[in-house]
């Protein structure tokens, strides 16, 4: 596999990719990091919403202060005010000592409200009030405090839809969504799959020792898969395959995926008509082979020139040529261009 190339936003972000889709995300994060406005991040499960929030924090002026993620789905409704704002001694039965809330603990830093769509309506009202002026009062306390924190919220669901069905407050939606960031699913940035796979394998090698790589067919299979669980699914599947693989090479058997794609989706149906996914994979393969053949003919087999024309990394282009069995030397001929 080609050497790892990552595009990261901040040393601790963990975001990896080189596709146009991920570059657009990184550009927005860089712009958003210059201010303190609330940010609303949405995307399917496993797309890296918390990683994006961390990237935002560690690029901002608040990078030296805490980053505090809150799983809203796990907050008991009756304890939300206490969890966020804390309490004084004697505020209620059992409150024997003062406890700082998450807002105080994150002082000067960033709070991520993950799965914010899971907040019950009364809790949404509490969060809205805090967002309006960033003032709060701990339970049992008479003094109003200022919470110097940046608010980032994340949701698996499109909150606009939740607003329409009245399960999410419209005013809170607009307060949170001053700046909005959508994380694309992995199936919409398949060019990043080899980079992500390499990244995860290197981490696994550091953890377990030993060097393991994907065989070409396994890599093709990863790129063809739809990844309903997105990057998290890819990471977990590679982790399992790394452990199960008896030798230095990981194949389709260890990935528990059939060659070229997931099993049922890519087989021909009984009446002889291919299912959509199978037809799509074959059409892409045909296009790639035709395009690469014409590209090699135009550049006389010069990989460097071809990569510039195609706007593809040189290693990625070489891997595609190998995948389709295209020998660039057949296109060089007499007087062919040198591959600088």
TrEMBL record:
Keywords attached to this entry: ATP-binding, Nucleotide-binding, Transcription, Transcription regulation
Matches recorded under PROSITE patterns: SIGMA54_INTERACT_3 (PS00688), SIGMA54_INTERACT_4 (PS50045)
InterPro entries named among the record's database cross-references: AAA+_ATPase, AAA_lid_NorR, Homeodomain-like_sf, P-loop_NTPase, Sigma_54_int, Sigma_54_int_dom_CS
Domain Sigma-54 factor interaction residues, every copy: 15-243
A UniProt-annotated Pfam family: AAA_lid_14
Residue stretches spanning the membrane: none
The keyword Transcription belongs to this UniProt entry's keyword annotation: yes
Protein name: Sigma-54 dependent transcriptional regulator
Source organism per UniProt: Sphingomonas natans
């Amino acid at each position: 596999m080609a050497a790892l190339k990552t595009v990261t936003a901040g040393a601790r972000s963990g975001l990896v990719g080189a596709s146009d889709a991920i570059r657009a995300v990184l550009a927005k994060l860089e712009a958003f990091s210059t201010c303190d406005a609330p940010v609303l991040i949405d995307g399917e499960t496993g797309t890296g919403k918390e990683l994006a929030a961390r990237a935002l924090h560690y690029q901002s002026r608040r990078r030296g202060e805490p980053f505090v993620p809150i799983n809203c789905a796990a907050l008991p409704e009756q304890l939300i005010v206490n969890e966020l704002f804390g309490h004084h001694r004697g505020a209620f039965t059992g409150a024997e000592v003062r406890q700082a809330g998450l807002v105080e603990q994150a002082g000067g830093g960033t709070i991520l409200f993950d799965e914010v769509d899971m907040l019950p309506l009364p809790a949404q009202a509490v969060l809205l009030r805090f967002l309006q002026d960033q003032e709060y009062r701990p339970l049992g306390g008479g003094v109003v405090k200022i919470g110097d924190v940046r608010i980032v919220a994340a949701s698996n669901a499109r909150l606009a839809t939740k607003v329409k069905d009245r399960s999410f407050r419209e005013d809170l939606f607009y307060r949170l969504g001053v700046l909005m960031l959508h994380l694309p699913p992995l199936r919409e940035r398949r060019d990043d799959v080899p980079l992500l796979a390499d990244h995860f394998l290197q981490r696994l090698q550091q953890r377990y020792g030993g060097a393991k790589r994907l065989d070409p067919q396994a890599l093709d299979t990863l790129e063809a898969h739809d990844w309903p669980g997105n990057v998290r699914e890819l990471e977990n599947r590679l982790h399992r395959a790394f452990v199960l693989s008896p030798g230095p090479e990981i194949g389709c058997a260890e990935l528990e995926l059939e060659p070229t794609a997931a099993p049922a989706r890519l087989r021909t149906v009984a009446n002889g008509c291919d299912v959509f996914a199978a037809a799509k994979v074959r059409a892409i393969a045909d296009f790639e082979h035709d395009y690469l053949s014409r590209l090699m003919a135009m550049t006389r087999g010069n990989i460097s020139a071809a990569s510039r024309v195609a706007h593809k990394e040189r290693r990625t282009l070489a891997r595609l040529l190998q995948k389709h069995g295209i020998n660039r030397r057949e296109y060089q001929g007499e007087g062919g261009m040198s591959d600088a």
